[in-house]
Automatic annotation (TrEMBL):
HAMAP family recorded: Pro_tRNA_synth_type3 (MF_01571)
Organism: Aphis craccivora (Cowpea aphid)
EC number(s) stated in the UniProt entry for this protein: 6.1.1.15
Key words of the record: Aminoacyl-tRNA synthetase, ATP-binding, Ligase, Nucleotide-binding, Protein biosynthesis
Name of this chain's protein: proline--tRNA ligase
Length: 524
């Protein structure tokens, strides 16, 4: 059986051979983006931008409190050519992507001005002015802005765009130990240009079998401090001492990752914590012969349920160990509910519409439900239907509205179940592989590989070269691409699987001792 295709719904399923088209359709039809007349740039519609706002609220509160105590600031988007070229290694990494302003009207500028691809070279001259004494440290700044990286390779909304929104944190410390506190391990190949090591949060998209980077933090050492003369007088030796620096960033790419991981054949599937609307209430079962009194009562009930939900703050929109964030962000802790009372669309059309947009929970209320003093709740993540009592404003033992408590429990359960499903999907597709001869089969099966690896960049180049397919039959950059290093997991295999002292790097041409199990895979 095949579902009838309509203009409202998606026209392709979420399978690997159609994933690019599915992704484009779900973003446009789900009202997340609109395409723009500059290639690689996209309009973020309110449905998507609200997700970014909710991410901002959560993240901003977290970095502003102990132990980070970061403060927000803003630096101009323009960077002088002299500042950008001050650090050759750093600019070399971004040079192909830098966009330059060369004219003002019809007049050529005396010196081209770069649009920031990142802000180190724009911010650190100011750090040099502001930091004179150890008392000025640590200096911890963050800015929410947009950057431009003029990538020419297959732009995709959220995942690879020429302009994107992000936060970038830049901290300076007196000692390496302070700077390293949250930046622990890296791979040399994926190190940030100008940095010493990097940590990364990687996600896995099961439909494509590819990994994608979600967020990073970098220990920059004293490299940039030397280049931009960011130093202080040591309190004991009175010597000129260069600061230790870190940077960290998270972008709107995370929204694209979420869509890829959780979306399905019917559209978006939004986790409740970042859904613009968490609960949509839809009246149904009304026809031309339905009495006006019944219609009015149904509308009144829908509005009453909505107001009861919006007037409470029981929902846990923070992880279980971060409940204190709720004290600072009331907008993130109320239930975000709404009604769809439009009379020019059928209930079925509305159901499909809100499913496509990924609303976590739909409440259906009809005349028969009113007679039974109940409503039907439908979960977006798994389609499960439940009956919930509409009984007045009855209270539980703690004085909370029972209906609101039940909806709250459902939303929290949806959040947990979606995370557990994605985690299980990841765990089932990460395999320990010790034999080079087995790597190709695992990659073809869309798995990520934990392999013994020496850590040398040239050895990684060989692994990527020898796992690249070149038969011309698959999508370029996807199933044909070679495997690359993703990260060195903090949790290494243990017991019988743990790395032994005599284990060699997996590549047959290497012969060196493996330093760790390293996660390899195809990536975006």
């Amino acid at each position: 059986n095949t579902k009838k295709v309509t203009k409202l719904g998606l026209e392709v399923p979420k399978v690997s051979e159609n994933l690019g088209e599915w992704y484009s359709q779900v973003l446009v039809k789900g009202e997340m983006i609109e395409y723009y007349d500059v290639s690689g740039c996209y309009v973020l519609r309110p449905w998507a931008y609200r997700i970014w706002e909710l991410i901002q609220e959560w993240f901003d509160a977290r970095i502003k409190r102990n132990p980070l105590n970061v403060r927000n600031c803003y630096f101009p988007m323009f960077v002088s050519q002299s500042a950008l070229e001050r650090e050759k290694e750093h600019i070399a990494d971004f040079a192909p992507e830098v966009a330059w302003v060369t004219k003002s009207g019809e007049t050529d500028l005396a010196e081209p001005i770069a649009i920031r691809p990142t802000s180190e070279t724009g911010m650190y001259p100011a750090f040099s002015k502001w930091i004179q004494s150890y008392r000025d440290l640590p200096l911890k700044l963050n800015q929410w802005n947009s950057v431009v990286r003029w990538e020419f390779k297959h732009p995709q909304p959220f995942l690879r765009t020429r302009e994107f929104l992000w936060q970038e944190g830049h901290n300076a410390y007196a000692t390496r130990e302070e700077a390293e506190r949250d930046v622990l391990i890296t791979l040399e190949k994926e190190k940030f240009a100008g940095g010493e090591f990097t940590t990364t949060c990687e996600a896995y998209v099961a439909s494509s079998g590819r990994a994608i980077q979600g967020a990073t933090s970098h220990y920059l050492g004293t490299n940039f401090a030397h280049m931009f003369d960011v130093h202080f007088e040591h309190p004991d030796t009175h010597e000129k001492t260069f600061v230790h620096q870190i940077s960290f960033g998270m972008t709107t790419r995370t929204i694209g990752v979420m869509v890829m991981v959780h979306g399905d054949d019917r559209g978006l599937v939004l986790p409740p914590r970042i859904a613009s609307i968490q609960v949509i209430i839809v009246p149904c079962g009304v026809g031309a012969s339905t009495a006006n009194e019944v219609k009015e009562n149904l509308t009144k009930t829908c509005l009453d349920v909505c107001n009861r939900l919006k007037g409470n703050s029981l929902i846990d929109n923070n992880d279980e160990n971060e409940n204190s964030v709720a004290q600072h962000h009331k907008s993130s802790t109320i239930i975000r509910a709404d009604t769809d009372l439009r009379d020019n669309y059928s209930p079925g059309w509305k159901f499909n519409h809100w499913e496509l947009k990924g609303v976590p929970l739909r409440l259906e209320i009809g005349p028969k439900d009113l007679d039974r003093n109940q409503m039907v709740a439908v979960r977006r993540d798994n389609g499960e239907k439940l009956t919930i009592s509409l009984e007045g404003c009855s209270k539980d033992d703690d004085g909370n509205d029972k209906m609101v408590v039940r909806i709250t429990e459902l939303l929290n359960q949806i959040q947990q179940d979606m995370y557990a499903k994605a985690e299980k999907e990841l765990e089932e597709n990460v395999v320990i592989c010790r034999k080079w001869s087995e790597c190709a089969a695992h990659l073809a099966a869309k798995r990520l590989l934990l392999i013994p690896f020496c850590g040398r960049p040239n050895c990684e180049d060989n692994i990527k070269r020898d796992t690249t397919l070149d038969d011309g039959t698959a999508e370029v950059g996807a199933s044909t691409m070679g495997a690359k290093s993703l990260c060195v997991p903090f949790e290494q295999p243990k017991g019988d699987e743990q790395l032994k002292s005599n284990d060699q790097c997996i590549h047959p041409e290497c012969g060196l001792t493996a330093g760790s199990f390293t996660l390899f895979g195809r990536s975006y």
